[in-house]
Amino acid sequence: MSIIVGIDIGNSTTETAVARIEDDGSPEFLSSGTTMTTGIKGTVENIPGIVHVLEEATDSAGIAIEDLDLVLLNEATPVIGDVAMETVTETIVTESSMVGHNPGSPGGKGIGVGKTIHIRDLEDGERNGGPDEPVIVVVPREYDFEVAAGIIREAVEAGVEVQGGIIQGDDGVLISNRLPDPLPFVDEVAHVDKVPLDMLAAVEVAPKGHAVRQLSNPYGIATLFSLSPEETGHVIPIAKALVGLRSAVVIRTPAGDVQSKQIPAGSIKFMGEHQNLTVELERGAEAIMDTLAHVQPLSDVQGEAGTNVGGMIENVRQTMADVTEKPLADVNIHDVLAVDCLVPQQVVGGIADEFSIETATGLAIMVDTDRLLMERVAETLAEKIGVRVELGGVEANTAILGALTTPGIDVPVAIIDGGAGSTDGAELQKGKVVEHVHLAGAGNMVTLLIKNELGLERFDVAEQIKIYPLAKVESLFHIRHEDNGVQFFEEPLDPSLFARVVLVTDDGDLIPIESKHNLDRIKTVRQEAKRKVLLRNSIRVLERISPSGNIRFLDFVAIVGRFGLDFELPQMLMNELSNYGIVVGVANVRGELGPTNAVATGLIINYCQRQGEAK
Amino acid sequence: MDDDPDRPAILVSLAPEVDERLYGWIAVGAEEEGIPCRRVPPEETDTAAIAYTAARNSRLGVGIGVASGQVAVHERHMPAERPVVATAVEEAHARDTCRSAGSNAARLVIGVPLQLE
User: Fold this and answer.
1) CB atoms near residue A603 (< 10 Å)
2) pLDDT tens per residue, range A486-535
3) Does B27 reside within a domain?
4) Which of A36, A142, A206, A313 is buried most, with the most CB atoms less than 10 Å from its CB?
5) Cα(B23)–Cα(B16) distance, rounded to whole angstroms?
6) Torsion sign, CA atoms A142, A145, A151, A155
7) Which residues of A touch B (CB under 8 A)?
8) What is the distance of C-alpha A419 from the center of its chain?
């Protein structure tokens, strides 16, 4: 009789299973544990996390670490992944010529066109143009709304044709309400001092519930400013940046220009065992993934030097070279997942901190490591705890053994093992070699997409959006969950949560999201990110492990790892795979642990099988 | 200002000793968010109590009370002693504090996140 431990070091969590091997060679599981992985997977920095989880698991099994006879580690996690993202377009305003933004409450409504004039000059009556020329008044914060409204009212009564205004403070409604006829006012324009004076400008405030129409239409701008067809071509980026906003200003400056600049994105060269193919990054994720599929099996990838993609790929290679202490030239890229996304980017040279939506490409990249690394971890661990440590089998294969402890499961079966860094898969058929594959892109890539598409500053906020469902606080006493279910609270909620979009944690705590996006937008971004990375990679995994490359030949698929814990992914996968006639479900390791601990459990089962064969 | 007592409005109640200008600033805060408010005489002396009565009497269920150097925004479903927001009115920031109270009261009506310190 002996006591052994299986340890699975993942990109994000380290899991363990403790078992007593009976005299007949069968395992009796005593306890399991989970903790956060310390350091990058497969490095000696993992040891503190391993020791922590070992202490926890041995404790709950009622034994000490010294009582252990053998520790099994998952073998040379053959891949490490990293993610990177770059925008491929950028909007630049030279000689500020537009303001488009969404203040909470712009004043009045309609469209006004006239020459920009400082309110000081309006007051002094020192306008440059004749009295019949329409004007757009520019009001800095120093002017109180009562004062500003008074000056504008007097000017209007004196016959000046005031068409609208650009206001620094949050006073648009107040000024508009104090005029005989309401005029459109765009307010909360931060850098009002950058608005050029004595230039032709158009102000548009849409009715409540609508977005600007005239200024988001190139021909609309052309009509207001009498532009030539050639000039109309130049205003397309302006119109594009103003789509969907409630209020906007466009200023026509003689030298002014807005450019939508294409950043040289570069090309990716896929080097396969049989052929090499190159694809331009700007052709998009679809084209990149198609090209990749043509060169399989892949031996390495290079990005064009001096371009965005070159930088992204070499960064990952450098990080991995540092971690693995291998020469840069020996770090080979094993897989790439490309994803298209749209990210809000601050407009360079804007006046009201405007954002425009730019296209970006995200890449998850995976490099090979080798067995030596894991052997080093094993040696260091053995010294540290004074127990024999061995590498106990390829991760994907042990995962499938662990998954097979799920009640109601049988071979042939395929598993999808998704975590933070990679999406792995394996296929087990009776009497046949187990196929296994590791692909780039998993949970971390989803978080990165959410962070960028919602323009969030912090990674941990994006991480929370990924794992918790949303709700809207509708009153001080109730919230509406994203599935429309309503939850009532007897105690009033914190006023700071009122009307906010919140995340509902597993404990029922409400975390407000500091973002202007509404619930539907956040939900769509979250689900699309999961679709583009997790769903897509799950299909890629199944295509690669299926004997004929055709998913339809698989019958049973079990989800293990963190993918199985996601609150919506299993349902999304089920919907998608039912199209192929596949039974897919979340594994329940040892009938009690759900989708976790499959590798740690599998390590022990694998050990028992090997001992059995040896006899 | 219209005084039709049936018209839906945020009710604002100032203790007798309070500077009259404070009402004006509160009203401006509500106006920017597009919600009307109306002045009503106070029935109590405590700030939260004044605000609570105003909220109970408001057809919008939201009231503001100003007394003893404090402004409170109340909502009719809240426990009487717990205003939604209560802020000290300091001489130097009285204008901003009142405008923000008016704005928050309106935001409670229209369902927009409050502006809290």
Assistant:
1) 32
2) 999 999 999 999 999 999 999 999 999 988 889 999 999 999 999 999 99
3) yes
4) A313
5) 12
6) positive
7) 104-105, 145, 170-171, 173-174, 177, 474-477, 492, 495-496, 498-500
8) 15
Pairing of strands A247-252, A267-272: unpaired
Residue A230: partners with Cβ closer than 8 Å, 6 or more residues away: none
| Adjacent-strand bridge partners of A604 | none
- Provide the pairing of β-strand A556-561 with A583-586: parallel
Residue type, A409: I
Q: Is position B116 within any domain?
A: no
Give residue B61's domain range. 10-110
Closest CA to A597 of A58, A68, A53, A1: A53
The closest of A281, A247, A300, A234 to A91, measured between CA atoms, is A234
Is residue A373 within 8 Å of residue A479, measured between CB atoms? no
- Domains contained in chain B, number: 1
The radius of gyration of chain B's CA atoms, rounded to the nearest angstrom, is: 12
Judged by CB atoms closer than 8 Å, whether chains meet at B78 and A177 is answered as: no
Residue B44, SS3?
Answer: coil
Instruction: Centre a 10 Å sphere on the Cβ of residue A255 and count the other Cβ atoms it contains.
Output: 8
- Phi/psi for A367 (5° steps) reads -120, 155
- The four Cα atoms A444, A446, A448, A451 give a dihedral, to 10 degrees, of -130
- pLDDT tens for each residue of A250-302: 888 766 566 666 667 788 999 999 999 999 888 888 999 999 999 988 999 99
R_g of chain A computed on alpha carbons? 31
Q: How many CA atoms lie within 13 A of A310 on its CB side?
A: 9
Distance from CA of A506 to the nearest CA of B (A): 24
Each residue of B85-106: pLDDT tens digit?
Answer: 999 999 889 999 999 999 999 9
- The packing angle between helices A519-530 and A459-467, to 10°, is 80
Q: Which domains does chain A have, with CATH numbers?
A: 1-77+370-407+592-615 (3.30.420.40), 82-88+263-365 (3.90.470.30), 95-259 (3.50.30.70), 410-586 (3.30.420.40)
Kindly state the tokens that stand for A333: 């890229």
Neighbour tally for B70: CB within 10 Å? 19
Closest-CA distance, A138 to chain B, in angstroms, reads 19
CATH number, position B61: 3.40.50.10150
Among B26, B28, B32, the strongest candidate for a mutation testing the A interface, having the largest count of A CBs within 10 A, is: B32
**Residues of chain A falling short of pLDDT 70:** 76-100, 126-131, 254-263, 349-350, 352, 369, 431-433
Joined tokens for residue A360: 């970006």
Q: Is the Cβ of B24 closer than 8 Å to some Cβ of chain A?
A: no
* E runs forming strands in A40-87: 70-75, 79-87
Rounded Cα distance, A205 and A188, in Å: 13
Two tokens, residue B77: 């479903």
Amino acid A2 reads: S
Within-domain flag for B3:
no
Instruction: Establish if B76 belongs to a structural domain.
Output: yes
Concatenate the DSSP letters of all residues of A69-121 into one string. SEEEEEE---EEEEEEEEESEEEEEES--EEEE--SS-BS-EEEEEEEEEHHH
- Of B71, B39, B73, B69, whose CA–CA distance to B55 is shortest? B73
DSSP per position, A189-249 = -TTGGGSPSSSEEEEEEPPTT----STTSHHHHHHHHT--HHHHHHTHHHHHHHTT-SEEE
Cα distance from B110 to chain A (closest Cα, Å)? Answer: 9
